[in-house]
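Standup, Tuesday
Yesterday: got the pipeline producing structure tokens again.
Today: sanity-check two examples.
Blockers: none.

Example 1:
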Amino acid sequence: MQEVIDRNYVKSALTKRNPDDDKFAVGSLLSICGSYGMAGAGIMSAKAALRSGVGLLRMIIPESIYPIMASSIYEAVFCPVKEDTQPNNISFIEKLNYNNAVVMGSGLSVSPYSKALVKTVLEKAEIPIVLDADGLNIVAENKDLLKSVKAPLVITPHIGEMSRLTGMTIDEINKDRAAVTLNFARDNNCIVVLKGHITVVASPDGKLMYNKNTGNPGMATGGSGDVLAGIIGSLIAQGSEPYKGAMAGVYIHGLAGDIAAQKLSQRSMLPTDMIEYIPLAFKKIESL
């Protein structure tokens, strides 16, 4: 089944707020993103998650980047750890499943610490996981990790990451992006968001949707994918079903990019600009 994502689909995927909701009622998201030299990726993912409405953001980060993270993100609760710490000794990992979702991988690096952390979360999580960037690169080195996942899993590869995950060339994937995405989703029991000019979202049970209605070439810049991962993780933590959350996140991400391009031009817009326009994207959708 192939359909195009539109505003009505997206609006139906978003959870509603109740007058008596508190921060726990509207979702807790655990972010495992960022590393020395790549703090910006973690910051963009976190800010996108917060702008997308999650009630509480917890972050596991290396001690080395704590000063820049804490001075950039005021709303998060941080767990700074030494990079030789075993994952089972991290307090936030002990309480992993107290959260509603986890987003992991943006700027994480592929260090031994990161590999151990990804392995532990994939094995232990009982909550939905959004896996991006270096999280995907770690899995590409050890595809058996996907077999250990018991929780709903959303992966958000760009074409290069999809090539590493599948072992196919970029040209082979581009010949039939939909089929490759759907087959990987079915074979690995995960939701796949293959990013690109027309992003494809596929589920293990055969659902397939395209995003042709939002997005533009100005979004083709480092950091855009980190923003998307944060949005999807936030929506799922708030209660959206993972496939619907992924679908809605793709559309909202593109719409925020379109607003940024309209106001700033495709050439000059940045992923950080897109984060600032996420609220306007939500206003457009919610005004239907």
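Example 2:
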Amino acid sequence: MSITGVIESIRKIMWQDAGLNGDAQRLEQLGWMLFFKVFCDKDQEMELMDESYESPIPERFRWENWASNDEGITGDELLHFVDRELFPALRNLDLSTGNQRAIIVHGVFDGNNNYMKSGINIRKVLNKLNEIDFNSAKDRHSFGDVYESLLKDLQSAGKSGEFYTPRAITQFITHILDPQLGEKVLDPACGTGGYLTAVIENISKKVSSVEDLKSLQENIIGWEYKPLPYLLATTNLILHDVDVPNITYRDSLDKPLSEYREKDRVDVIEANPPFGGIVANNNENNFPQNFRTKESADLFLILMIHLLKVGGRAGIVLPDGSLTGDGVKQRVREKLLKDCRLHTIIRLPNSVFQPYATVATNLLFFDKVHHNNENVNFATKEVWYYEHRLPEGQKAYSKTRPIKESEFDPIKEWWNDRKESEICWKVSIDTLRERNFDLDIKNPHRTEELQEFSSNELIQILSNSFQKSESILMNIKNTVG
């Protein structure tokens, strides 16, 4: 059976289990089982390659000793083993030695759960997973494409969509920044690992020795604070031949900015930081007083500016809401323009992240020029804007018609030979200062916005607007009454 067929069979088995409710929960269940199979297959490979290597997983809990025998334990005995023995053992691994692979396993099992209620169904899933050999290059590479489609499914799995950035965007940003072997690359909100794997694919072509491989593994860095994406990102990197993924299970905003040292700074940042979220645990207090806010995207921007080395470069996703606004938002943008050379903003259509989010988003590219100093001039002298439009004849992006890598080809051609046109324009720092550093600048060449809609569509939009206004008025009337 093909790997796609194996995954489809597993999904059908999971649909029959009373403990699983919703696509996100099914993906989390499949996630920890996949992770454990991938991890244990990699353990066996490492033991063959290095006689001194020892798995951090106790002998009886290794995949090959309880899961790999298709005629092995099942039913209530298997359910009891998974819930009462396997999970507790892996959540309580000895971390005192600093073994990074032990830390990874602990992080995955500490944050995730077994939801399945039928030991018979668990056995059926295990047997299906046993059909995949992750030490076979052919199986591993075939599975890589299937795994990407699983991650993409997250986009329509309720709130979990926030952890997946379309592959076209991760590939484009990586192409533009072109991280090199030996450079430190950070994604402080790494989700399922899309940017990290794009960087690995970009750099791995230049790996020619064991030392190069070690450098790549150490210098591709991710931080993620939610259990499911942490699990999925870790598996994603192992599937990309990274033995010990350098992903930390942490809230990126949990540490005072003042505690970061020069050694913590990085050469490249690629990220789609969470936006629209409210910062938890009073973590805004880890930032200087004039930048404190509950809006996560603004704090992440300050964090990323801080963590870039002088000469470092970044490509990030930000919503329109971070480009405009007064108070803290204005001060954050001023710091960006002062400390960094913000050279390019790609304005994306508002359906790129559907169905998870319909807000308009932007790709910002900037270089760190100097440390913060109130008396210095602005590092940014002008900002180029490029309006990325939907393909002709397409009204919006969707799950079945997502943004494609090829759509960025014209931007790549324009990148090193920039000319103004009906979709490209530039704005000087003087203009931005006059605007109180408002970066939400619409295309000055676009004057006929309404032509994007048919007359029937405009009538529907107006009708919806009137209905919403009427509903609001009724609520006010009922409240006053």
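Quick observation on example 2: The first strand starts at residue 185 and ends at 187. The radius of gyration is 25 Å.
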